[in-house]
Write a structure and sequence with these properties.
It is built from three helices and 13 strands. By secondary structure, the protein is mainly beta. It has two domains: 123 residues, no CATH class; 85 residues, OB fold (Dihydrolipoamide Acetyltransferase, E2P) (Beta Barrel).
Amino acid sequence: MSDKIEIEKGNDYFGRFEPVEVLIWLDGPRTFTLLDQDGLLCMAHWLQEIDNHWYYAVVPITDEILKKLSSGEQSLLDVLHQPRVYLVAVDEQFQVQAVSLVPFEQLPQDALPERGTMLRRELEPFFRLRSIGVEIKPGDIPAPKGFDGYGSIIDILGDDAMISVDFGSDDQTSVRSCKFSDELWETYGEMFHYQQRVQVFGVISGPKDPITVLEIGFPENIGQTVKTTS
């Protein structure tokens, strides 16, 4: 992948990269849950092996998402398809060699699960849609949804590591709560002020749930929040 945009993280961002629960095992843990450095639940999925290194896509999840994945209500690709994904490389001793946050589109698309691939094969023949609505269609469930939008801060709740952002336009208002991990709040909390314009990258578990923030950009200096490599 050339000319990619990535945000580098410390190799200990996911601790020792130890599974909490192995969901798929094939000559090693291929899909599993784990915790990030703030103790938040994540899912890792094996993508490919290059030069004796295993590459995993890692995304934040919730217990509800894990339940839907395990019951066949969501596919592996549904869960992985978030605006930004952690790409983790481990060596033959399963030691982390690199962690970076990249746009979903920059993952090796041919290494991702095919649309409709469930956690276990036996779930696929019994997969049924239990929701209704114009956005619901076979093999394409809208939740969890990735989020990428601009808005203005209208409230700052430091004790809860949360801000409220108005993502609306002149004819439509959409105020959403945006929840931060402890690490991200330490990075950005003191930088926020009322009516500040921000770009929020995150994931939404449900229509009334807060946006789980993965990264924040500021329109006046957003180019400084990412690093371009070739």
